[in-house]
Amino acid sequence: MSTPPHGVWQGLTDEQLVGRCQQGDRHAFGEFVRRYQRLVTGIAYRMSGDIMLAEDIAQDAFVRAWQRLPGFQPRRAGSFRAWLCRIVTNMTIDRLRRSRPTIPLDKLPLEGSVRPAEAYLRQEQARAIRAAILRLPEASRVTLILREYEGFSYREIAEALSIPTGTVMSRLSYARRKLRQELADQAELSQREE
Amino acid sequence: MQHPTVTTLAAYVDGELQRSAATQIKQHLLRCPRCRAEQAELLALTGKLQEFALPEGLAEDLWERVRQQLPERRADPQPSSARFLRWLPPIGLAASSLALQAVLIVALGLWALTGLGWFDAQMLVTGWVPSTVKLPSVPLGDAASYILSWLLAAPLGPGLITLTQATGVDFTQLLSWLAPSALVLVAFGTLAVLYLGWLLVYWNRSARRTDLAAHAA
Fold it and tell me: Which of A105, A147, A174, B140 has a C-alpha 20 to 30 A away from that of B129?
């Protein structure tokens, strides 16, 4: 069977799906993949800035989640979503540490995006933002990504990263301050060049 | 109200403050242009960040790729017997420590009762030890003597007497030699048992943390 039977599993909660997966039900796990593939790949992509790497990490993260699911205990590890985020975050950081990018961050192509003339400035802006995000320390970067792009609450971020809420706030504060500073510097540089 | 910190203002913008705190910030913002500007900066940053969008077609049909990679058999969860065995050493050590301390408390109690004239602890000792053995008199006083004699005579006495009778050599003298150092040994033994217990509990907790991290990673 190539695709998970969405209709059957869509109505189930994460907790119910976890139970099925722990009994070895691959179709239930397929529903998890469908439910969280955008979240997992999105985190990996925004952490790494590399679409191919992000998809590889996402795939590996789901495989690892499947392997670890028998030992998953919500009482200890929190929600499945938070647990999955922890897996993909750790894997991304691990992969990034093993293979540092050799291309300058602001020169990385924006994959999948079109390049019409009117979108040029916007694309440059997006590239600058991505480069600024990728320059953040990993801890602050992932915190910012979970908040700004995935809409996690502070409590959910704390759960996903196993850190206190106060640390979430300070990391976010640091990340935003650095980003504002970097983007302001870049804007100033662009104005001078013009 | 003083100016809120940037962190607090960010929490307000993120909708993370409790209602009373949020109301205070809201009122402050009405009359503070500086904080309003800061709030606007935060909102603008959030807006700008959205320009770093996900590429189209990202992670489509990931299940097909994942499905092919899923192993046939998954790792079994840690059996409950393994979890029990992990707790066994610290529990065992804690129990030993408690038992050791219970013996000391009982000995001390017997000595106290003897002191009050309600009981004769010496009888317990002399019941085990032959009259030829001179009970130790350690510098720590009668209390220590009673405790040590009782502690040593109870487990060792019968065996030493049997050995003495069998070999003809007076092994009961060992009691006199062992007594002075026994108190120190007991004290250090208790400390060692407590320390080892703490160490094992610590090890157990860090092992559990490693397990959780491994599950997550």
Answer: B140
* Domain A111-194 -> CATH class: mainly alpha
Is the CB of A147 inside 8 Å of chain B's CB atoms? yes
Touching check for A67 and chain B: CB below 8 Å?
Answer: yes
Spell out the per-residue pLDDT of chain B, length 217, in tens: 688 898 999 999 999 999 999 999 999 999 999 999 999 999 999 998 988 888 887 877 788 888 888 876 544 455 555 666 667 777 777 787 777 777 767 766 766 676 677 766 566 655 555 555 555 444 444 555 556 555 655 566 666 677 777 887 777 666 666 655 566 666 777 778 777 878 877 777 777 666 555 554 4
For the domain spanning A1-100, the CATH number is 1.10.1740.10
Alpha-carbon distance B20 to nearest alpha carbon in chain A (angstroms): 18
Q: Quick one: tokens of B90?
A: 């610290």
Nearest to A59 among B16, B69, B71 (CB): B69
Nearest to B204 by CA among B81, B94, B86, B84: B86
C-alpha distances in Å from residue B156, one per residue of B98, B102, B168:
21, 18, 17
